[in-house]
Specification:
Keywords: Signal. This is DUF3617 family protein. It comes from Massilia aquatica. The chain is of the alpha+beta class. It has one domain. 23% of the residues lie in helices and 34% in strands. The protein is built from two helices and seven strands. Strands 1, 2, 3, 4, 5, 6 and 7 form a seven-stranded antiparallel beta sheet that branches. Strand 4 and strand 5 form a beta hairpin.
């Protein structure tokens, strides 16, 4: 009798655990975004016209997607490009995001289009 009671409690616990693990279905879909891009060669510090052998792109996104990216990348950087009040920066490898009270959120990513590698999309 004791073994049956233990088995029933165990089964009941498994059912509760399985039910607690279910989540609402998440619908993955692309959303529109606001942004712009810059094609170049050389480096961001010394821009040159893109060539057949050297072609890179820096992509800047703004608005909701930039805010979502910024919020996902905490904490804020300690060293920033400016000391303006309220200005915040967050960077992770080749992704950099900023918040400026006057202009809002913006994020930058970059790619070397000849190698496909991710590179930084902005500099100070």
């Amino acid at each position: 009798m004791k073994n049956i009671l233990i088995a029933l409690l165990f089964a009941s616990g498994l059912c509760s655990f399985a039910h607690a693990g279910t989540k609402e279905p998440w619908e993955a879909h692309y959303r529109p975004l606001k942004g712009e891009y810059l094609m170049y060669s050389g480096s961001l510090g010394e821009l040159q016209a893109p060539t057949r052998k050297d072609r890179k792109v820096s992509i800047r996104v703004e608005g909701t997607v930039a805010k979502e990216m910024f919020d996902s990348m905490h904490p804020d950087d300690k060293d920033t490009c400016t000391t303006a009040p309220g200005h915040r920066e967050r960077t992770k490898d080749g992704v950099s995001c900023i918040y400026d009270p006057d202009t809002g959120y913006a994020c930058y990513v970059g790619f070397d289009l000849r190698t496909g590698k991710s590179i930084g999309g902005s500099i100070c």
